[in-house]
Amino acid sequence: MNTAYDPRAFEPFAVTVDLAVFTVRAGALHVLLIRRGQEPYAGAWALPGGFILPRESAETAARRELAEETGLSPALVAALHLEQLRTYSEPGRDPRMRVVSVAFTALVPDMPEPAAEGGGDADRARWVPVDGAAGLAFDHAVILSDARSRVGSKLEYTCLATAFCPPEFTLGELQAVYETVWDTALDRPNFRRKVLATPGFVEAVPGAARLTGGRGKPAALYRPGPATVLHPPLLRPTEGHPR
Amino acid sequence: MNTAYDPRAFEPFAVTVDLAVFTVRAGALHVLLIRRGQEPYAGAWALPGGFILPRESAETAARRELAEETGLSPALVAALHLEQLRTYSEPGRDPRMRVVSVAFTALVPDMPEPAAEGGGDADRARWVPVDGAAGLAFDHAVILSDARSRVGSKLEYTCLATAFCPPEFTLGELQAVYETVWDTALDRPNFRRKVLATPGFVEAVPGAARLTGGRGKPAALYRPGPATVLHPPLLRPTEGHPR
DNA sequence: CCCTTTATAGTCACAATGACTATAAACACG
DNA sequence: CGTGTTTATAGTCATTGTGACTATAAAGGG
Protein backbone atom coordinates (compact mmCIF):
# COMPACT_ATOMS: atom_id res chain seq x y z
CA MET A 1 0.00 0.00 0.00
CA ASN A 2 3.00 2.22 -0.02
CA THR A 3 4.11 1.42 -3.54
CA ALA A 4 4.09 4.42 -5.87
CA TYR A 5 0.90 4.84 -7.83
CA ASP A 6 1.65 3.23 -11.13
CA PRO A 7 -1.09 1.47 -13.08
CA ARG A 8 1.35 -1.23 -14.11
CA ALA A 9 2.42 -1.83 -10.51
CA PHE A 10 -0.57 -3.93 -9.66
CA GLU A 11 -2.59 -6.64 -11.27
CA PRO A 12 -6.32 -5.97 -11.56
CA PHE A 13 -8.15 -8.76 -9.82
CA ALA A 14 -11.82 -9.60 -9.78
CA VAL A 15 -13.18 -9.42 -6.25
CA THR A 16 -16.21 -11.43 -5.24
CA VAL A 17 -18.14 -12.37 -2.14
CA ASP A 18 -19.32 -15.85 -1.14
CA LEU A 19 -21.83 -16.62 1.58
CA ALA A 20 -22.23 -19.60 3.86
CA VAL A 21 -25.74 -19.16 5.24
CA PHE A 22 -26.68 -21.76 7.83
CA THR A 23 -29.91 -22.88 9.40
CA VAL A 24 -30.93 -25.70 11.71
CA ARG A 25 -33.69 -27.78 10.21
CA ALA A 26 -35.02 -31.17 11.22
CA GLY A 27 -32.14 -31.81 13.57
CA ALA A 28 -29.44 -31.19 10.97
CA LEU A 29 -27.31 -28.20 10.06
CA HIS A 30 -28.22 -26.98 6.57
CA VAL A 31 -26.50 -24.53 4.27
CA LEU A 32 -28.03 -22.46 1.48
CA LEU A 33 -26.67 -23.50 -1.93
CA ILE A 34 -27.47 -22.54 -5.47
CA ARG A 35 -27.14 -24.65 -8.58
CA ARG A 36 -24.82 -23.08 -11.11
CA GLY A 37 -26.28 -22.26 -14.50
CA GLN A 38 -23.14 -21.82 -16.55
CA GLU A 39 -19.58 -22.93 -16.92
CA PRO A 40 -17.40 -23.47 -15.15
CA TYR A 41 -18.97 -26.01 -12.85
CA ALA A 42 -22.33 -25.75 -14.66
CA GLY A 43 -24.89 -27.83 -12.79
CA ALA A 44 -22.78 -28.05 -9.66
CA TRP A 45 -23.86 -26.67 -6.31
CA ALA A 46 -22.13 -23.55 -5.07
CA LEU A 47 -22.33 -21.02 -2.30
CA PRO A 48 -24.32 -17.93 -3.22
CA GLY A 49 -22.18 -14.94 -4.12
CA GLY A 50 -20.97 -12.72 -6.91
CA PHE A 51 -18.90 -9.75 -7.93
CA ILE A 52 -18.54 -6.64 -5.82
CA LEU A 53 -19.77 -3.61 -7.74
CA PRO A 54 -17.68 -0.44 -8.05
CA ARG A 55 -19.38 1.53 -5.28
CA GLU A 56 -20.08 -1.33 -2.89
CA SER A 57 -18.33 -2.62 0.17
CA ALA A 58 -18.00 -6.38 0.44
CA GLU A 59 -20.77 -6.55 3.01
CA THR A 60 -23.16 -4.55 0.85
CA ALA A 61 -22.40 -6.81 -2.08
CA ALA A 62 -23.01 -9.85 0.07
CA ARG A 63 -26.48 -8.67 1.04
CA ARG A 64 -27.34 -7.75 -2.54
CA GLU A 65 -26.22 -11.08 -3.93
CA LEU A 66 -28.04 -12.95 -1.21
CA ALA A 67 -31.26 -11.14 -2.00
CA GLU A 68 -30.82 -11.62 -5.76
CA GLU A 69 -29.85 -15.25 -5.79
CA THR A 70 -32.00 -16.69 -3.06
CA GLY A 71 -35.57 -16.35 -1.99
CA LEU A 72 -34.76 -14.89 1.39
CA SER A 73 -37.00 -11.94 2.18
CA PRO A 74 -35.44 -8.48 1.75
CA ALA A 75 -36.28 -7.59 5.35
CA LEU A 76 -34.46 -10.66 6.59
CA VAL A 77 -31.47 -10.06 4.36
CA ALA A 78 -31.22 -6.46 5.56
CA ALA A 79 -31.39 -7.44 9.23
CA LEU A 80 -29.13 -10.47 8.91
CA HIS A 81 -26.05 -10.71 11.07
CA LEU A 82 -23.27 -11.13 8.51
CA GLU A 83 -19.80 -11.92 9.67
CA GLN A 84 -16.64 -12.00 7.63
CA LEU A 85 -15.11 -15.44 7.64
CA ARG A 86 -11.91 -14.94 5.69
CA THR A 87 -10.68 -14.07 2.22
CA TYR A 88 -9.66 -16.73 -0.27
CA SER A 89 -6.99 -15.65 -2.68
CA GLU A 90 -5.09 -18.68 -3.94
CA PRO A 91 -4.16 -18.23 -7.62
CA GLY A 92 -6.09 -20.73 -9.67
CA ARG A 93 -9.10 -21.02 -7.42
CA ASP A 94 -11.19 -19.82 -10.36
CA PRO A 95 -10.19 -21.34 -13.71
CA ARG A 96 -11.29 -18.29 -15.69
CA MET A 97 -9.22 -15.58 -14.12
CA ARG A 98 -7.71 -14.27 -10.96
CA VAL A 99 -10.52 -13.98 -8.42
CA VAL A 100 -10.18 -13.01 -4.79
CA SER A 101 -13.23 -13.81 -2.73
CA VAL A 102 -14.34 -12.43 0.62
CA ALA A 103 -16.37 -15.10 2.42
CA PHE A 104 -19.15 -14.34 4.90
CA THR A 105 -21.11 -16.44 7.34
CA ALA A 106 -24.70 -15.89 8.44
CA LEU A 107 -27.17 -17.77 10.62
CA VAL A 108 -30.92 -17.74 10.10
CA PRO A 109 -33.88 -19.45 11.77
CA ASP A 110 -35.56 -22.33 9.96
CA MET A 111 -37.85 -21.11 7.19
CA PRO A 112 -39.63 -22.35 4.09
CA GLU A 113 -37.71 -23.33 0.96
CA PRO A 114 -36.39 -20.20 -0.75
CA ALA A 115 -37.92 -21.36 -4.02
CA ALA A 116 -41.38 -20.98 -2.56
CA GLU A 117 -41.05 -17.22 -2.48
CA GLY A 118 -40.02 -17.00 -6.11
CA GLY A 119 -38.21 -14.03 -7.60
CA GLY A 120 -34.69 -13.75 -8.98
CA ASP A 121 -32.77 -16.98 -9.28
CA ALA A 122 -34.44 -18.32 -6.18
CA ASP A 123 -35.66 -21.42 -7.96
CA ARG A 124 -32.08 -22.60 -8.13
CA ALA A 125 -31.52 -22.11 -4.38
CA ARG A 126 -31.91 -24.96 -1.87
CA TRP A 127 -31.23 -25.75 1.75
CA VAL A 128 -28.85 -28.71 1.79
CA PRO A 129 -27.61 -30.65 4.84
CA VAL A 130 -23.95 -29.69 5.26
CA ASP A 131 -22.90 -33.29 5.70
CA GLY A 132 -24.49 -34.20 2.40
CA ALA A 133 -22.96 -31.32 0.45
CA ALA A 134 -20.41 -32.83 -1.93
CA GLY A 135 -18.95 -31.79 -5.26
CA LEU A 136 -19.18 -28.07 -4.63
CA ALA A 137 -17.86 -25.65 -7.27
CA PHE A 138 -14.51 -23.86 -6.95
CA ASP A 139 -13.03 -24.09 -3.46
CA HIS A 140 -16.44 -23.79 -1.89
CA ALA A 141 -16.06 -27.05 0.00
CA VAL A 142 -13.13 -25.52 1.85
CA ILE A 143 -15.03 -22.32 2.55
CA LEU A 144 -18.01 -24.30 3.80
CA SER A 145 -15.82 -26.38 6.05
CA ASP A 146 -14.10 -23.31 7.47
CA ALA A 147 -17.47 -21.64 8.03
CA ARG A 148 -18.86 -24.70 9.77
CA SER A 149 -16.06 -24.92 12.27
CA ARG A 150 -16.19 -21.18 12.88
CA VAL A 151 -19.88 -21.41 13.71
CA GLY A 152 -19.15 -24.23 16.15
CA SER A 153 -16.59 -22.12 18.00
CA LYS A 154 -18.76 -19.03 17.94
CA LEU A 155 -21.48 -20.85 19.84
CA GLU A 156 -19.02 -21.36 22.67
CA TYR A 157 -18.26 -17.77 23.44
CA THR A 158 -20.96 -15.67 21.81
CA CYS A 159 -24.74 -15.47 21.96
CA LEU A 160 -24.97 -16.33 18.27
CA ALA A 161 -27.04 -19.47 18.84
CA THR A 162 -30.15 -17.34 19.24
CA ALA A 163 -29.74 -16.24 15.61
CA PHE A 164 -30.75 -19.78 14.61
CA CYS A 165 -33.99 -19.45 16.57
CA PRO A 166 -37.21 -17.58 15.87
CA PRO A 167 -37.73 -14.30 17.77
CA GLU A 168 -39.18 -16.19 20.72
CA PHE A 169 -37.98 -19.66 21.52
CA THR A 170 -37.87 -22.29 24.23
CA LEU A 171 -34.72 -23.41 25.97
CA GLY A 172 -35.30 -26.80 24.40
CA GLU A 173 -35.05 -25.24 20.94
CA LEU A 174 -31.90 -23.38 21.91
CA GLN A 175 -30.39 -26.58 23.23
CA ALA A 176 -31.27 -28.35 19.99
CA VAL A 177 -29.25 -25.71 18.11
CA TYR A 178 -26.19 -26.45 20.21
CA GLU A 179 -26.66 -30.19 19.90
CA THR A 180 -27.09 -29.99 16.15
CA VAL A 181 -24.12 -27.75 15.45
CA TRP A 182 -21.81 -29.54 17.87
CA ASP A 183 -23.26 -32.96 17.12
CA THR A 184 -23.34 -33.91 20.79
CA ALA A 185 -26.00 -34.55 23.37
CA LEU A 186 -26.17 -32.09 26.27
CA ASP A 187 -27.69 -32.63 29.68
CA ARG A 188 -30.91 -30.69 29.75
CA PRO A 189 -30.99 -29.44 33.37
CA ASN A 190 -27.34 -28.42 33.22
CA PHE A 191 -27.82 -26.62 29.93
CA ARG A 192 -30.71 -24.58 31.24
CA ARG A 193 -28.84 -23.76 34.45
CA LYS A 194 -25.85 -22.53 32.46
CA VAL A 195 -27.89 -20.45 30.02
CA LEU A 196 -30.00 -18.83 32.70
CA ALA A 197 -26.92 -18.12 34.80
CA THR A 198 -25.26 -16.23 31.94
CA PRO A 199 -26.36 -12.61 32.30
CA GLY A 200 -27.94 -11.13 29.19
CA PHE A 201 -27.93 -14.31 27.11
CA VAL A 202 -31.72 -14.81 27.11
CA GLU A 203 -34.56 -13.10 28.89
CA ALA A 204 -37.93 -14.59 29.75
CA VAL A 205 -40.93 -13.36 27.82
CA PRO A 206 -42.87 -11.77 30.66
CA GLY A 207 -46.45 -12.63 29.81
CA ALA A 208 -46.06 -16.07 31.40
CA ALA A 209 -46.17 -17.00 27.74
CA ARG A 210 -45.78 -20.59 26.80
CA LEU A 211 -46.32 -22.60 23.72
CA THR A 212 -45.63 -26.04 22.48
CA GLY A 213 -45.47 -27.74 19.16
CA GLY A 214 -46.33 -31.21 20.30
CA ARG A 215 -46.23 -33.40 23.36
CA GLY A 216 -44.93 -32.77 26.82
CA LYS A 217 -45.21 -29.97 29.31
CA PRO A 218 -45.38 -26.55 27.64
CA ALA A 219 -42.10 -24.64 27.80
CA ALA A 220 -41.52 -21.06 28.82
CA LEU A 221 -40.56 -18.69 26.02
CA TYR A 222 -37.42 -16.61 25.92
CA ARG A 223 -35.96 -14.03 23.60
CA PRO A 224 -32.37 -12.98 22.92
CA GLY A 225 -30.92 -10.82 25.68
CA PRO A 226 -28.71 -7.74 25.34
CA ALA A 227 -25.42 -9.61 25.72
CA THR A 228 -23.34 -10.38 22.67
CA VAL A 229 -20.56 -12.43 24.23
CA LEU A 230 -20.90 -15.22 26.76
CA HIS A 231 -19.20 -14.72 30.12
CA PRO A 232 -18.18 -17.31 31.02
CA PRO A 233 -18.19 -19.29 27.77
CA LEU A 234 -20.38 -22.30 27.19
CA LEU A 235 -17.69 -24.79 26.29
CA ARG A 236 -18.53 -27.82 24.24
CA PRO A 237 -17.97 -31.20 25.88
CA THR A 238 -14.26 -31.99 25.89
CA GLU A 239 -13.26 -33.44 22.55
CA GLY A 240 -10.54 -35.68 23.79
CA HIS A 241 -9.13 -32.93 25.98
CA PRO A 242 -9.11 -33.84 29.62
CA ARG A 243 -11.10 -31.02 31.17
CA MET B 1 -19.32 -16.13 -8.48
CA ASN B 2 -22.01 -17.55 -10.65
CA THR B 3 -22.35 -14.58 -12.95
CA ALA B 4 -21.50 -15.37 -16.56
CA TYR B 5 -17.93 -14.61 -17.54
CA ASP B 6 -18.09 -11.21 -19.09
CA PRO B 7 -15.16 -8.82 -18.73
CA ARG B 8 -17.55 -5.93 -18.31
CA ALA B 9 -19.43 -7.71 -15.56
CA PHE B 10 -16.93 -6.90 -12.87
CA GLU B 11 -14.86 -3.97 -11.82
CA PRO B 12 -11.11 -4.59 -11.66
CA PHE B 13 -9.94 -3.75 -8.15
CA ALA B 14 -6.47 -3.44 -6.79
CA VAL B 15 -5.91 -5.97 -4.03
CA THR B 16 -3.36 -5.36 -1.32
CA VAL B 17 -2.26 -6.81 1.99
CA ASP B 18 -1.63 -4.91 5.23
CA LEU B 19 0.14 -6.30 8.26
CA ALA B 20 -0.23 -5.55 11.94
CA VAL B 21 2.91 -7.08 13.44
CA PHE B 22 3.03 -6.87 17.22
CA THR B 23 5.72 -7.33 19.81
CA VAL B 24 5.96 -6.77 23.55
CA ARG B 25 8.80 -4.45 24.43
CA ALA B 26 9.58 -2.66 27.67
CA GLY B 27 6.20 -3.47 29.14
CA ALA B 28 4.21 -2.03 26.25
CA LEU B 29 2.60 -3.51 23.16
CA HIS B 30 4.38 -2.25 20.05
CA VAL B 31 3.42 -2.45 16.39
CA LEU B 32 5.69 -2.35 13.37
CA LEU B 33 5.04 0.76 11.25
CA ILE B 34 6.71 2.27 8.22
CA ARG B 35 6.91 5.93 7.26
CA ARG B 36 5.37 6.57 3.88
CA GLY B 37 7.61 8.00 1.21
CA GLN B 38 5.07 9.30 -1.26
CA GLU B 39 1.57 10.64 -1.61
CA PRO B 40 -1.00 10.09 -0.46
CA TYR B 41 -0.19 10.39 3.22
CA ALA B 42 3.49 11.06 2.50
CA GLY B 43 5.39 11.24 5.76
CA ALA B 44 2.61 9.56 7.71
CA TRP B 45 3.02 6.25 9.50
CA ALA B 46 1.33 3.22 7.98
CA LEU B 47 1.11 -0.51 8.41
CA PRO B 48 3.52 -2.40 6.17
CA GLY B 49 1.88 -3.90 3.11
CA GLY B 50 1.51 -3.70 -0.63
CA PHE B 51 -0.01 -5.10 -3.77
CA ILE B 52 -0.57 -8.79 -4.32
CA LEU B 53 1.31 -9.96 -7.42
CA PRO B 54 -0.39 -11.99 -10.14
CA ARG B 55 0.80 -15.40 -9.02
CA GLU B 56 0.72 -14.84 -5.27
CA SER B 57 -1.78 -15.69 -2.59
CA ALA B 58 -2.47 -12.99 -0.04
CA GLU B 59 -0.36 -14.74 2.55
CA THR B 60 2.60 -15.08 0.21
CA ALA B 61 2.32 -11.40 -0.63
CA ALA B 62 2.18 -10.53 3.06
CA ARG B 63 5.44 -12.35 3.74
CA ARG B 64 7.14 -10.81 0.75
CA GLU B 65 6.09 -7.28 1.65
CA LEU B 66 7.11 -7.78 5.24
CA ALA B 67 10.56 -8.90 4.19
CA GLU B 68 10.92 -6.07 1.68
CA GLU B 69 9.68 -3.22 3.81
CA THR B 70 11.06 -4.07 7.20
CA GLY B 71 14.33 -5.33 8.52
CA LEU B 72 12.89 -8.56 9.88
CA SER B 73 15.14 -11.48 9.06
CA PRO B 74 14.03 -13.70 6.15
CA ALA B 75 14.10 -16.76 8.38
CA LEU B 76 11.80 -15.11 10.87
CA VAL B 77 9.44 -13.87 8.18
CA ALA B 78 9.22 -17.35 6.67
CA ALA B 79 8.50 -18.99 10.02
CA LEU B 80 6.12 -16.31 11.22
CA HIS B 81 2.62 -17.27 12.29
CA LEU B 82 0.46 -15.07 10.07
CA GLU B 83 -3.24 -14.92 10.66
CA GLN B 84 -5.87 -13.29 8.52
CA LEU B 85 -7.64 -10.57 10.42
CA ARG B 86 -10.28 -9.40 7.97
CA THR B 87 -10.63 -7.72 4.60
CA TYR B 88 -11.28 -4.01 4.29
CA SER B 89 -13.25 -3.04 1.23
CA GLU B 90 -15.06 0.23 1.85
CA PRO B 91 -15.11 2.33 -1.32
CA GLY B 92 -12.97 5.42 -0.80
CA ARG B 93 -10.58 3.91 1.72
CA ASP B 94 -7.79 4.74 -0.73
CA PRO B 95 -8.14 8.16 -2.43
CA ARG B 96 -6.37 7.01 -5.59
CA MET B 97 -8.52 4.11 -6.67
CA ARG B 98 -10.57 1.20 -5.54
CA VAL B 99 -8.38 -0.89 -3.25
CA VAL B 100 -9.46 -3.94 -1.31
CA SER B 101 -7.02 -4.92 1.40
CA VAL B 102 -6.58 -8.23 3.18
CA ALA B 103 -5.23 -7.53 6.67
CA PHE B 104 -3.01 -9.94 8.60
CA THR B 105 -1.82 -10.11 12.18
CA ALA B 106 1.47 -11.54 13.43
CA LEU B 107 3.22 -11.73 16.76
CA VAL B 108 6.97 -11.74 17.21
CA PRO B 109 9.33 -11.78 20.20
CA ASP B 110 11.11 -8.59 21.13
CA MET B 111 14.06 -7.89 18.84
CA PRO B 112 16.39 -5.08 17.79
CA GLU B 113 15.13 -2.17 15.74
CA PRO B 114 14.50 -3.32 12.17
CA ALA B 115 16.63 -0.45 10.89
CA ALA B 116 19.71 -2.01 12.47
CA GLU B 117 19.64 -4.87 10.00
CA GLY B 118 19.53 -2.58 7.00
CA GLY B 119 18.36 -3.68 3.56
CA GLY B 120 15.26 -2.71 1.62
CA ASP B 121 13.19 0.10 3.06
CA ALA B 122 13.99 -1.05 6.55
CA ASP B 123 15.31 2.37 7.54
CA ARG B 124 11.75 3.65 7.37
CA ALA B 125 10.41 0.90 9.66
CA ARG B 126 9.99 1.40 13.42
CA TRP B 127 8.46 -0.30 16.42
CA VAL B 128 5.90 2.11 17.84
CA PRO B 129 3.86 1.71 21.04
CA VAL B 130 0.30 1.02 19.90
CA ASP B 131 -1.13 3.54 22.33
CA GLY B 132 1.09 6.25 20.86
CA ALA B 133 0.27 5.45 17.23
CA ALA B 134 -1.80 8.34 15.91
CA GLY B 135 -2.40 9.84 12.50
CA LEU B 136 -2.01 6.61 10.58
CA ALA B 137 -2.49 6.59 6.80
CA PHE B 138 -5.67 5.32 5.11
CA ASP B 139 -7.91 3.36 7.49
CA HIS B 140 -4.93 1.81 9.19
CA ALA B 141 -6.00 3.10 12.60
CA VAL B 142 -9.12 0.98 12.29
CA ILE B 143 -7.16 -2.05 11.15
CA LEU B 144 -4.71 -1.60 14.02
CA SER B 145 -7.53 -1.31 16.52
CA ASP B 146 -9.25 -4.42 15.17
CA ALA B 147 -5.97 -6.31 15.25
CA ARG B 148 -5.25 -5.26 18.81
CA SER B 149 -8.55 -6.47 20.15
CA ARG B 150 -8.25 -9.70 18.19
CA VAL B 151 -4.87 -10.37 19.76
CA GLY B 152 -6.37 -9.77 23.20
CA SER B 153 -9.09 -12.36 22.60
CA LYS B 154 -6.71 -14.83 21.03
CA LEU B 155 -4.64 -14.91 24.20
CA GLU B 156 -7.71 -16.17 26.03
CA TYR B 157 -8.31 -19.31 24.08
CA THR B 158 -5.15 -20.08 22.12
CA CYS B 159 -1.49 -20.64 22.95
CA LEU B 160 -0.52 -17.61 20.89
CA ALA B 161 1.10 -15.78 23.80
CA THR B 162 4.21 -17.91 23.41
CA ALA B 163 4.71 -16.34 19.97
CA PHE B 164 5.61 -13.11 21.77
CA CYS B 165 8.34 -14.91 23.70
CA PRO B 166 11.79 -16.13 22.68
CA PRO B 167 12.16 -19.90 22.03
CA GLU B 168 12.74 -20.51 25.73
CA PHE B 169 11.11 -18.30 28.31
CA THR B 170 10.17 -18.08 31.96
CA LEU B 171 6.63 -18.10 33.25
CA GLY B 172 7.26 -14.56 34.43
CA GLU B 173 7.92 -13.47 30.87
CA LEU B 174 4.80 -15.24 29.66
CA GLN B 175 2.76 -13.55 32.36
CA ALA B 176 4.21 -10.18 31.36
CA VAL B 177 2.88 -10.79 27.83
CA TYR B 178 -0.62 -11.33 29.15
CA GLU B 179 -0.42 -8.35 31.47
CA THR B 180 0.86 -6.08 28.73
CA VAL B 181 -1.67 -7.08 26.10
CA TRP B 182 -4.61 -7.11 28.50
CA ASP B 183 -3.32 -4.16 30.50
CA THR B 184 -4.14 -5.83 33.80
CA ALA B 185 -2.18 -7.27 36.68
CA LEU B 186 -2.47 -11.01 37.22
CA ASP B 187 -1.82 -12.97 40.38
CA ARG B 188 1.47 -14.74 39.89
CA PRO B 189 0.85 -18.04 41.71
CA ASN B 190 -2.58 -18.42 40.14
CA PHE B 191 -1.22 -17.67 36.68
CA ARG B 192 1.47 -20.32 36.93
CA ARG B 193 -0.98 -22.86 38.31
CA LYS B 194 -3.34 -22.24 35.40
CA VAL B 195 -0.64 -22.39 32.73
CA LEU B 196 0.94 -25.54 34.09
CA ALA B 197 -2.46 -27.19 34.46
CA THR B 198 -3.29 -26.60 30.79
CA PRO B 199 -2.00 -29.66 28.93
CA GLY B 200 0.36 -28.87 26.06
CA PHE B 201 0.55 -25.12 26.64
CA VAL B 202 4.17 -25.07 27.81
CA GLU B 203 6.70 -27.75 28.60
CA ALA B 204 9.63 -27.48 30.96
CA VAL B 205 13.09 -27.41 29.43
CA PRO B 206 14.49 -30.61 30.89
CA GLY B 207 18.09 -29.73 31.65
CA ALA B 208 17.07 -28.13 34.93
CA ALA B 209 17.89 -25.07 32.90
CA ARG B 210 17.43 -21.71 34.46
CA LEU B 211 18.48 -18.22 33.66
CA THR B 212 17.81 -14.77 34.85
CA GLY B 213 18.27 -11.31 33.52
CA GLY B 214 18.54 -9.49 36.78
CA ARG B 215 17.57 -9.87 40.39
CA GLY B 216 15.57 -12.46 42.19
CA LYS B 217 15.51 -16.22 42.25
CA PRO B 218 16.33 -17.72 38.86
CA ALA B 219 13.28 -19.00 37.00
CA ALA B 220 12.79 -22.32 35.29
CA LEU B 221 12.69 -22.19 31.50
CA TYR B 222 9.82 -23.43 29.38
CA ARG B 223 9.15 -23.74 25.71
CA PRO B 224 5.90 -23.77 23.73
CA GLY B 225 4.04 -27.07 23.99
CA PRO B 226 2.24 -28.98 21.25
CA ALA B 227 -1.19 -27.54 22.02
CA THR B 228 -2.59 -24.80 19.83
CA VAL B 229 -5.81 -24.04 21.69
CA LEU B 230 -6.28 -23.62 25.41
CA HIS B 231 -8.65 -26.04 27.13
CA PRO B 232 -10.07 -24.59 29.22
CA PRO B 233 -9.49 -20.98 28.18
CA LEU B 234 -7.47 -18.52 30.22
CA LEU B 235 -10.09 -15.82 30.61
CA ARG B 236 -9.04 -12.27 31.27
CA PRO B 237 -10.24 -10.73 34.53
CA THR B 238 -13.90 -9.81 34.20
CA GLU B 239 -14.21 -6.45 32.52
CA GLY B 240 -17.34 -5.34 34.21
CA HIS B 241 -18.95 -8.71 33.66
CA PRO B 242 -19.93 -10.39 36.88
CA ARG B 243 -18.11 -13.70 36.66
C1' DC C 1 -56.44 -43.80 33.06
C1' DC C 2 -51.91 -45.02 32.74
C1' DC C 3 -47.70 -44.22 30.01
C1' DT C 4 -44.72 -41.62 27.40
C1' DT C 5 -42.81 -37.20 26.59
C1' DT C 6 -40.93 -32.79 27.61
C1' DA C 7 -40.02 -29.08 31.13
C1' DT C 8 -38.22 -27.69 35.30
C1' DA C 9 -36.46 -28.02 40.24
C1' DG C 10 -33.10 -29.70 43.07
C1' DT C 11 -28.94 -32.55 45.08
C1' DC C 12 -24.18 -33.89 45.61
C1' DA C 13 -19.42 -34.62 44.86
C1' DC C 14 -15.64 -32.72 42.59
C1' DA C 15 -12.89 -29.43 39.83
C1' DA C 16 -11.53 -24.77 38.99
C1' DT C 17 -10.75 -20.19 40.67
C1' DG C 18 -9.53 -15.97 43.36
C1' DA C 19 -7.35 -14.22 47.31
C1' DC C 20 -3.80 -15.08 50.26
C1' DT C 21 0.39 -16.78 53.11
C1' DA C 22 4.86 -18.87 53.22
C1' DT C 23 9.36 -20.21 51.77
C1' DA C 24 13.41 -20.20 48.61
C1' DA C 25 17.04 -18.30 45.97
C1' DA C 26 19.23 -14.83 43.83
C1' DC C 27 21.40 -9.78 44.00
C1' DA C 28 22.30 -4.92 45.91
C1' DC C 29 24.31 -2.30 49.10
C1' DG C 30 25.72 -0.65 53.08
C1' DC D 1 28.95 -10.30 55.27
C1' DG D 2 24.64 -9.67 56.71
C1' DT D 3 20.21 -7.54 55.73
C1' DG D 4 16.75 -6.32 52.83
C1' DT D 5 14.67 -6.26 48.27
C1' DT D 6 13.26 -8.88 44.44
C1' DT D 7 11.51 -12.65 41.91
C1' DA D 8 10.15 -17.68 41.85
C1' DT D 9 7.59 -21.27 43.59
C1' DA D 10 4.80 -24.06 47.00
C1' DG D 11 0.80 -24.20 49.55
C1' DT D 12 -4.03 -23.12 51.86
C1' DC D 13 -8.85 -22.12 51.95
C1' DA D 14 -13.34 -20.62 50.93
C1' DT D 15 -16.33 -19.96 47.01
C1' DT D 16 -18.10 -20.96 42.60
C1' DG D 17 -18.90 -23.65 38.48
C1' DT D 18 -19.73 -28.22 36.51
C1' DG D 19 -21.10 -33.02 35.46
C1' DA D 20 -23.98 -36.67 36.72
C1' DC D 21 -28.19 -37.66 38.65
C1' DT D 22 -32.96 -37.86 40.91
C1' DA D 23 -37.48 -35.97 41.39
C1' DT D 24 -41.66 -33.64 40.20
C1' DA D 25 -44.89 -31.25 36.97
C1' DA D 26 -47.67 -30.78 32.98
C1' DA D 27 -49.01 -31.91 28.76
C1' DG D 28 -50.85 -35.67 24.88
C1' DG D 29 -51.56 -40.54 23.09
C1' DG D 30 -53.12 -44.75 23.35
Automatic annotation (TrEMBL), chains A, B:
The record ties this protein, via PROSITE patterns, to:
NUDIX (PS51462), NUDIX_BOX (PS00893)
Instruction: Respond yes or no to whether keyword Hydrolase is given for this record.
Output: yes
Which domain of life, per UniProt? Bacteria
Q: Tell me the InterPro entries matching this sequence.
A: Nudix_hydrolase (IPR020476), NUDIX_hydrolase-like_dom_sf (IPR015797), NUDIX_hydrolase_CS (IPR020084), NUDIX_hydrolase_dom (IPR000086), WH-like_DNA-bd_sf (IPR036388), WH_DNA-bd_sf (IPR036390), WHD_NrtR (IPR054105)
Task: Tell me where in this chain the Nudix hydrolase domain is found.
Answer: 12-151
Q: Which Pfam families match?
A: NUDIX, WHD_NrtR
Manganese in keyword set: no
Keyword annotations of the record: Hydrolase
Q: Where are the transmembrane segments?
A: none
Q: Which GO terms describe its molecular function?
A: hydrolase activity
Entry similarity comment: Belongs to the Nudix hydrolase family.
Which named protein is this? NUDIX hydrolase
Q: What is the lineage of its organism?
A: Bacteria, Bacillati, Actinomycetota, Actinomycetes, Kitasatosporales
